[in-house]
Amino acid sequence: MKFTLGFSPCPNDCFIFDAMIHGKIDTDGLEFESVITDVEDLNQRAFKAKLDITKLSFHAFAYVAKEYVLLHAGSALGNNCGPLLISKNNYSGAIPSIDDFKIAIPGKYTTANLLLGLYAPNAKDKVEMIFSEIEESILKGKVEAGVIIHENRFTYQAKGLHKIVDLGEYYEDKFLHPIPLGGIVVKRTIHHDIQQKINRILRRSVEFAFANPDASKDFVKANSQAMDEEVMRKHIELYVNKYSIDLGVEGIKAIETLFDKASNNHLIPKISDELFIKK
Q: 122: which of 99, 194, 210, 272 fits an S-S bond (Cβ 3.0–4.6 Å)?
């Protein structure tokens, strides 16, 4: 039985999926056809239900919960790992009002944009672009600020850019939960026994990656767009953690809280469907 599997080329995704797509673990007779592309492209594919299993932003998940259900393994949640709002100007701790700023975002349906909406609901002048283009757009004055994600957390200061606010830190302080960024979902039309099997395989893949951290190095590097090895390592350490093995009670509560707060602020629709696969 073969399933399409979408994930991003980022080090954290390549790290956790390497073992299951390259035969390094037992996949219980299941096969996976990889589709590797930017997370906002994965979000758009999810809106059209193109993939059987896919990584997507939790923001996007709110709009496709009727078609997809969340696995307990593979998610990116954590502390001190959220998106940053940055600028060319150094405000020296005096956080400005950003309501009138033109702000670059890494996609309308990214969780980064959802967190920006919670932080600054009146900031409406947003420009969507590929996450890797945001720093350069700020430097060239095309936008006044930008929300950066992924490895850009580790590179923006070297380019002379400055943090306005850590949106993840804001979320953690306000709601007292880890930050839910992205998860792995599976089509609801797939039988729940197979959903559970996929979840077990993915958990096995994450556990193998933790136990054999060098095993995925070539795959990570091949998809990292010439990223520095130290940045790749930091990226994986930041986004792959205990919640990637299993959400647990704390992870489930964090996701439910995000959806509750966002829907109460009219940033996403109310979700009536069960969010998580049955264990």
A: 99
